[in-house]
Design brief:
CATH superfamily of the largest domain: FAD/NAD(P)-binding domain
Helix content: 25-40%
Structural class: alpha+beta
Distance between the termini: 63 Å
Strand content: 15-25%
Number of domains: 3
Largest sheet: 7 strands, mixed
Shape: globular
CATH class of the largest domain: Alpha Beta
CATH architecture of the largest domain: 3-Layer(bba) Sandwich
CATH topology of the largest domain: FAD/NAD(P)-binding domain
Number of strands: 21
Radius of gyration: 24 Å
């Protein structure tokens, strides 16, 4: 063998703070013990977007990797617990359904529970009322009842089927991670990046220049500069692929309001004339926003709809944001990896923004390069992240397309538009025999797809014929037992606000 071994990366520079930057810094801070210098550059002059305050259950994995105590995290970020998302007026005006975290019932002899429910529902006249599919999911029943507790560690217990995530203040989460990162040896530099220096031979980024004349050199650069994509987009010229023809919403308004009513353990997404409004309950306030398509709705009308729908008094001025749904053609180019808005944007309908940051970080750690920045790791990273963005994209498009609403030009467009073939095949499988096949490595489980398809699609033509091998009478008894057990388990849980008060209430004396 000849030649020298590749040299390890010794200098990592993260450009941009906010949720993406400090999540990256916290995860990469473990490398400081091996002599890797981690530097984060951010400017207080540049605000962060911070409109998303809801998460999905995968955040547990990230916090667990960092060794974060959950009660401490909930207190620090003034968080509440999230058992799912309630969708209002999506399939038809007046409809409501929940996308719960967790599972529906229990599968029987390899058959998905919802197939059993479909067969029994068609026999409801003879077998008695089987109830809504929601009644067989503990997360859904608990959410509707405003109750919460943590899942059981016993996989045989009904309580083990409970799934949950969080609503939190994204700015406080970034501050929480910043404290952890700096304690672990990450260096924060205050400054505004005004130029990017590239190596004349490799084309890689060599350094970023700050407004005050300082030059921050690095080997691996992580672009967390938001929509501007200062490194990946502007400096390296990686193009952005728009998905606006499938996801026409391009604007958002956000405003906090005083808490109103009970502290509900779920997000609410209410469809409107040309988009949808979110409601996210935190311990100290409620987060509200309106995502809409400016081609179908004026900013003034969108703001009026948002303010009219608040449950409490507005606590600040309405913030406005423009965006285009889509993703960069590559998320890793040369010696630069983009995270968060610098890499792509999918509206927060299913609370996936923080997950996609987390997924990018996890892939970077599993494919961490040496100083040669060889192609195989970079190519695999781009393949995996590109596929994940597409899978999430399809799930969000489903909500818009699977509607019978015809009360506005916006919904006419969404209902009749051409959709990706990858999504069309999933809808066809559902409409035929209610089959759902999860993509390999797909973020959303079969139960998540079932929730939205059952919530918005017309009943399927039939069900899995193998269900007819099961006894109708025994199935009815099993379902009655399952529904009763889930109902009693949920009723025995503490109220959501009582659980928080007992375990993780924030100190709100100085809450803004």
């Amino acid at each position: 063998m000849t030649g020298s071994a590749p040299q390890p990366v010794r200098k990592v520079v993260i450009v941009g703070g906010g949720t993406a930057g400090w999540m990256a810094a916290a995860a990469l801070s473990r490398l400081t013990a091996a002599g890797v210098a981690i530097t984060l550059v951010e400017s207080d002059e540049i605000g962060t977007i911070g409109v998303g305050e809801a998460t999905i259950p995968s955040l547990h994995d990230f916090n667990r990797m960092l060794g974060i105590d959950e009660d401490e995290f909930v207190r620090a970020t003034r968080a509440t617990f999230k058992l799912g998302i309630e969708f209002v007026d999506w399939g038809r005006r007046g409809d409501r359904y929940l996308h719960p975290f967790g599972t529906y019932g229990r599968d029987v002899q390899g058959l998905k529970f919802h197939q059993l429910w479909l067969r029994q529902a068609r026999l409801a006249g003879a077998m008695g009322d089987v109830g809504r599919l929601d009644e067989y999911c503990l997360s859904a029943v608990a959410a509707h009842a405003g109750r919460f507790t943590r899942p059981s560690a016993d996989p045989a217990a009904v309580l083990a089927s409970l799934g949950y995530a969080f609503h939190f203040d994204a700015g406080l989460y970034a501050r929480f991670l910043r404290n952890m990162s700096e304690e672990a040896g990450v260096t924060r530099i205050e400054g505004k990046v005004v130029a990017v220096d590239r190596d004349a031979v490799t084309g890689h980024i060599a350094a970023v220049a700050l407004a005050d004349g300082r030059r921050i050199e690095g080997e691996l650069f992580v672009d967390c500069s938001g929509f501007r994509a200062l490194l990946l987009g502007e400096a390296l010229g990686v193009r952005f692929t728009s998905w606006q023809h499938w996801l026409p919403c391009d604007s958002a308004l956000a405003v906090p309001s005083a808490s109103g009513g009970a502290l509900l353990p779920y997000t609410r997404a209410t469809a409107g004339r040309a988009g949808w409004r979110w409601r996210i309950p935190l311990q100290h306030r409620t987060g509200n926003g309106h995502v809409y398509a400016s081609a179908f709705c004026s900013d003034a009308a969108a703001e009026d709809d948002l303010l009219q729908g608040l449950d409490g008094a507005a606590l600040a001025e309405v913030r406005k944001l423009r965006f285009v749904a889509g993703v960069r053609e590559r998320l890793w180019e040369g010696n630069c990896v983009a995270l968060g808005l610098a890499g792509g944007f999918l509206e927060p309908l299913e609370s996936t923004s923080i997950h996609l940051i987390q997924s990018g970080i996890a892939r970077l750690l599993s494919l961490f390069p040496d100083a040669s920045f060889a192609g195989p790791e970079r190519d695999e990273y781009n393949r995996l992240l590109g596929l994940e963005y597409q899978q999430v994209r399809d799930f969000i498009i489903l909500h818009y397309h699977a509607t019978t609403r015809n009360d506005s030009a916006f919904w006419d467009h969404c209902r009749t538009m051409q959709i990706p073939a990858s999504l069309a095949s999933k809808i066809d499988l559902w409409r035929s025999k209610a089959r759902v096949i999860r993509d390999q490595g797909g973020l959303f489980t079969e139960d998540s797809w079932i929730a939205v398809l059952a919530g918005q699609e017309a009943p399927p033509a039939s069900y899995d014929p193998l269900v007819d091998t099961l006894s109708i009478e025994e199935s009815a008894r099993f379902m009655r037992h399952m529904r009763d057990l889930i109902g009693k388990t949920a009723a025995a849980m503490p109220r959501h606000e009582d659980f928080i008060a007992r375990h993780c209430r924030a100190d709100l004396a100085n809450a803004a």
